[in-house]
Amino acid sequence: QVFFPETAFLFPGKNGVWAIRWFTPKAEVDLCGHATLAAAHVLYQEGLVTKGNEIVFSSNGGNLRATMEKNGRLSLGFPRMQARKSSVSPILVEGLGAYPDEVLIGENYLCVFGEEEVIHALDPDFRVLSGLSSSLGVIVTARSSSVGYHFVSRYFAPRLGIDEDHATGSAHCLLAPYWSDKLGKDKLVGLQASPRGAEIRCELVKEEVVLSGLAETFVRGKLTA
After folding, report:
1. 19 has a pLDDT exceeding 80
2. Is 133 a residue whose pLDDT tops 80?
3. Which helix (H) or strand (E) holds 7?
4. What is the mean pLDDT of residues 121-139?
5. Which one of 59, 97, 150, 219 is least enclosed by Cβ atoms within 10 Å?
6. Total domains, the chain
7. What is the set of active-site residues?
């Protein structure tokens, strides 16, 4: 549980804005959901930001907002992203071991399948997927047939040193607008079907995708020179 794919670094800035950067084992990334949720949790928990006040993060992916609700849930405002239709890459098919019904490309590949069971059964060849040159990662998704969820997804990014991510908030900047258009809903609940699994609540508000979740501190450490 301590081997997480991204690490967030915070730097206090002017006017209460916090600069944030995220790193995987291999590269810096422009946007990361769950490391941002963890960062907001720590700022509130340590009293660096008063509970009830909004946190503004400045990042390479733009300014992000975080708030804590009365029930303790954290809400994060992320940029709403769109994807364009793309041809199906042979490398993508070989790497996934399955042929998607639809492929779109934005910040990542978005591969849509017709059945939830296909998403659960995928056993990717990460060596092959790492050969993709036009995108950082691969999102696979399908409409959910499970009670309580609107869609199911998984996320693979071997080029970044992440074969499969446990929970990928940033992927929902593409997933939420896509499924909102398909299902006609602004509030959605997604299941990320990684081995650990994650429930991700999404709401589309103007040009943002608002993600919400809970965080808990379970380990502390100190860096020494």
Report:
1. yes
2. no
3. strand 7-12
4. 89
5. 219
6. 2
7. 6
* Last residue in a domain, options 79, 103, 136: 79
* Backbone torsion region of residue 71, taken as left when φ is above 0, otherwise alpha when ψ lies between -120 and 50, otherwise beta: alpha
Joined tokens for residue 66: 């975080």
Please check whether residues 98 and 166 belong to one and the same domain.
Answer: yes
Whether 106 and 190 share a structural domain: yes
Q: Is residue 2 part of a domain?
A: no
pLDDT at 15 over 90: no
Structure confidence at residue 197 as a pLDDT band (50, 70, 90): confident
Q: What is the DSSP string of 62-100?
A: EEEEEEE-TTS-EEEEEE----EE----HHHHHHHTS--
Does one domain contain both 73 and 92? no
3-state secondary structure of 201: strand
DSSP summary character for residue 186: S
Q: Which helix (H) or strand (E) holds 172?
A: helix 172-183
pTM as predicted: 0.86
Average pLDDT for 132-161: 90
How many CB atoms lie under 10 A from the CB of residue 7?
A: 13
Q: Verify that 88 and 65 share a domain, yes or no.
A: no
